[in-house]
Design goal:
By secondary structure, the protein is an alpha+beta fold. The chain is 34% helix and 16% strand. Among the domains are: 13-77, Transferase Creatine Kinase, Chain A, domain 1, CATH 1.10.135; 267-346. It is built from 11 helices and 10 strands. The protein binds adenosine-5'-diphosphate and arginine.
């Protein structure tokens, strides 16, 4: 393989940080799972509109290809290679009275974490047998959950297209055919080994073997962020007692995409701020001040519909889980105050 040619307008972190010298030094280096630099960068090479453009096949990828991953991790999270990651999942420390008790702005709240199984490759380097093993072990763990976390696992294989479409449309299930995941090798053997577990009310859900082996999700209508966080923390503890999670002292929970390392947590609201979002610059400035990311209503790489945006914490590594959610809460409080001020109702 030779150094990839990037178009001059390529903005991805891969284009920014992969130099020909780095490429030469790493191109023949493989992890013990046989994962190569070429595989790590394929998504960003195939998709020049990537924002990041790299994926890891295992923990070793982050070590062997650190010359590429470290600057990306620093640029995304502000986390330096000598920094230490800290975890704090104590809901008592979160200051999150409902920022919208009247239900005027926030449609729903969702907090998810990514998790992978310890001592197995991450999705981009996993074999079909290992992926099936992940599914078996995760489902067995989920089946031990009780009370409001008790639910049912629905494999993607055999799910009717209508059910699948409805679950995606209603924001519960991952979409199919993502081209970034495709190039990363994360869609191999699709739909085998993939599925979704959820409780009766669909307030607790687990995606199995999508971008990460687990995406543990707590969600509900409205803006009671503290309740969503508390449920998530219980769910993580319940699953973690059955399935050991891949984790490193330096990078926290290990995930296939470097943007998800650390807490692997994305806490979001779906929110309508019709006045404020007319002034895109002001809207973006408040989000940037609180380290928030703006997504569309169908998640990443989607557009807003009906003036509804997905607002979430951007940083996941080098901040604790409590701090990540607090970023979102504080930003949403200010966004709502600004919307009310513009409406003249503050
Ligand atoms: P992820 O957060 O899991 O990395 P996406 O951005 O693709 O991935 O979002 C996954 C799904 O979750 C999408 O259907 C998206 O609309 C939905 N979602 C995200 N945040 C919320 C929210 N606050 N309320 C309802 N659905 C949400
Ligand atoms: N690889 C994609 C890109 O670079 C997504 C990056 C972050 N999102 C994610 N789901 N991991 O644009």
């Amino acid at each position: 393989m030779t150094y990839p040619t990037f178009s001059t307008d390529c903005q991805s972190m891969l284009c920014r940080f992969l130099t020909p010298e780095m490429f030469e030094a790493l191109k023949d280096v493989q992890t013990s799972n046989g994962f190569t630099l070429e595989q790590a960068i394929r998504s960003g090479v195939d998709n020049p509109d990537s924002s990041i453009g790299v994926y890891a096949g295992d923990e070793e990828s982050y070590i062997l290809y650190a010359a590429l991953f470290d600057p990306i991790i620093e640029a995304y999270h502000g986390f330096h290679p000598t920094d230490a990651h800290r975890s704090d999942l104590d809901p008592a420390k979160l200051k999150a009275p409902n920022p919208d008790p009247e239900g005027e702005f926030i449609l729903s709240t969702r907090i998810r974490v990514g998790r992978n199984v310890a001592d197995l490759p991450l999705g981009p380097a996993i074999t079909r047998e290992q992926r099936d093993e992940v599914e078996r072990r995760v489902v067995a763990g989920l089946e031990t959950l009780t009370g409001d976390l008790a639910g049912t696992y629905y494999p993607l294989t055999g799910m009717s297209p209508e059910t699948q479409r409805a679950l995606i449309e209603d924001h519960f299930l991952f979409k199919e055919g993502d081209r970034f995941l495709e190039s990363a090798g994360l869609n191999r053997d699709w739909p085998s080994g993939r599925g979704i577990y959820h409780n009766h009310d669909k307030t607790f859900l687990v995606w199995v073997n999508e971008e990460d082996q687990m995406r543990i999700i707590s969600m509900q209508p409205g803006g009671d962020i503290a309740e969503v966080f508390r449920r998530l923390v219980r769910a993580i503890a319940g699953i973690g007692s059955q399935v050991p999670f891949a984790r490193s002292a330096h990078l926290g929970y290990l995930t296939s995409c470097p943007t998800n390392l650390g807490t692997a947590m994305r806490a979001s609201v779906h929110i309508a701020l019709p006045k404020l979002t007319e002034d895109r610059e002001r809207f973006e400035a408040i989000c940037a001040k609180h380290h928030l990311q703006i997504r569309g209503v169908h998640g990443e790489h989607s557009e807003s519909e009906g003036g509804v945006y997905d607002i979430s914490n951007l940083r996941r590594l080098g901040v604790t889980e409590v701090e990540a959610v607090q970023d979102m809460v504080d930003g949403v409080v200010e966004l709502i105050a600004e919307e009310k001020r513009l409406r003249g109702t503050a």
